Amino acid sequence: MAKVEKLYYSIGEVAATFKVNTSLIRFWEKEFDVLKPKKNKKGNRMFTERDMRYLHMIFNLVKEKGYTLQGAKDALKKDFESIEKNIILLETLQNTNNFLKGLDLVLEDKLHAQKKIPFSK
Questions:
Q1: Strand (E) or helix (H) holding 46
Q2: Where are the domains of the chain?
Q3: pLDDT tens series, the chain, 121 aa
């Protein structure tokens, strides 16, 4: 997931990133103390990169590994640093994979462009 670094993400952007409903993001905010998005004057949540990392950790534990909410809370309290390192590694691998896929598309386009141009000697 190659993403542009932003200062803040709206709850809609966060939900779209994790392919979940905004209500789940609000629910997790109530359940997990590590999530502390700022709110603007209108009361809209503004998530930082740090919040996004925490959400990725929670998403990974609950949605991908099948932890209960309490199990995810306990895991974060017990082994936060290890979970965070794993998420950073996962994000790095996803970014690398996306970069390579993009590079592959560029190379394919160049190859197709070369095939269309007749060679002259």
A1: strand 45-46
A2: 11-116
A3: 445 568 999 999 999 999 999 999 999 999 999 999 999 999 999 999 999 999 999 999 999 999 999 999 999 999 888 888 888 888 889 889 989 999 999 998 888 887 776 656 5
For residue 9, the cross-strand partners are 47
3-state secondary structure of 91: helix
Structure tokens at 10: 């709206």
SS3 21: coil
Buried b (16+ CB within 10 A) or exposed e, 13-31: ebbebbebeeebbeebbee
- CA pair distance 72, 59, nearest whole angstrom: 9
Does the domain made of 11-116 have the CATH classification 1.10.1660.10?
Answer: yes
Q: How far apart are CA 44 and CA 36, in angstroms?
A: 13
User: Structure pTM?
Assistant: 0.72
